Amino acid sequence: MAFSLTEICMVAGFLLAAYAVVANDSIQTLGTFLSSNSHRPWWALWIFASGILCAVLAYGWFVHGGDVSYGRLTNFPVPEGGISWIHVIPPLALLFLTRVGVPVSTTFLVLTVFTISNLQAMLTKSLLGYLVAFVVAIVVFRLVFKRATEYFHRTRGEAIPRYWVVLQWSSTAFLWSQWLIQDLANIFVYLPRQLSISWLLFGVLVLVAMQGYIFYTFGGVIQKIVLSKTDTTDIRAATIIDFIYGLVLLVFKEVSNIPMSTTWVFLGLLAGREFALSMYLADTGFKRTLRNVSMDALKALSGLIVSVILALGLPYLNRLLFGG
């Protein structure tokens, strides 16, 4: 059976985007879960995350008439000429940036090449997400959880009550589901908007397999960003981070169906938390915090610049080469 070039590009784009998004973005959601459960078998964590993944995909498929993006691709129709080589380049660029440990936004990098007219709306929502997460983190970790954070910091390495395991796995399940609802659009943009059962099963198998690889390697390069933050390997701190992150994503999910950068929300949350902790933990340091936060922000900004260059340059290059 012969496949057309459009079909080859469609499948290739999906596979590349699936791996790149899982390797780059999902670590923001599962990074604290991985770091605080590094003593557990990787396959147990994989089965847990994969179960939630399958549930979210199945629910979206049934409720939204085959649309597993939960309506986030409404403003991103399939290109008139179908998927072409220009749509395959962004996930390739994402793979490279992931390899060098740059936490770029897959939302900007993948989706803008499909419809650049939505860039302003996505950028506005993502910037607002960063600011909201930043402010919420400062308020929460400076006022609400100040004493708890000091206690966690002082008692790190000591035995932790078992109920924290239940709390953390629950918060991870909540956050992971909210992240999937936001970011599945970045992967399934390459497939038909209403999936048949065969396409759904194909997508599930691919994502579960790739998730397994990420768990087997315990997060890869991007995990270093999580590990560089204060006490993220503490299951108690990780539980609070995951719960707040999930709540912010939930709020923005209800605001509109415009895709947003979960990367920026994640970095905003970690930045606000680090600044809050630098105000009362003696061994954190404001200057070091400012330097680390600035570096993370610059890396995210670099991803946005690459996204715009690709979104504008690839269609022009296609017309130049093929007159299309």
How would you characterize the overall build of this protein?
The chain has helices at residues 5-24, 26-36, 42-63, 85-99, 106-111, 119-144, 146-154, 163-183, 185-188, 197-216, 223-227, 235-255, 262-278, 286-322. It is mainly α and 324 residues long. The chain is globular, with a radius of gyration of 20 Å. It starts with a helix and ends with a helix. The relative contact order is 0.20. The longest helix has 37 residues, at 286-322. Helix content is 72%, strand content 0%.
- Tally of alpha and pi helices: 14
- Biggest β-sheet: count, sense, barrel? none
| N-end to C-end Cα span | 27 Å
The rounded Rg comes to 20 Å
Strand content: under 5%
Secondary-structure element series:
HHHHHHHHHHHHHH
What would the principal axes of the Cα set say about the shape?
globular
Structural class: mainly alpha
Query: What is the percent of helical residues?
Result: over 70%
Low-confidence stretches: none
Number of strands: 0
Question: pLDDT average, as an integer?
Answer: 82
Give the tags.
single chain, 324 residues, mainly alpha, 14 helices, 72% helix, 0% strand, globular
Topology:
Elements: H1 5-24, H2 26-36, H3 42-63, H4 85-99, H5 106-111, H6 119-144, H7 146-154, H8 163-183, H9 185-188, H10 197-216, H11 223-227, H12 235-255, H13 262-278, H14 286-322
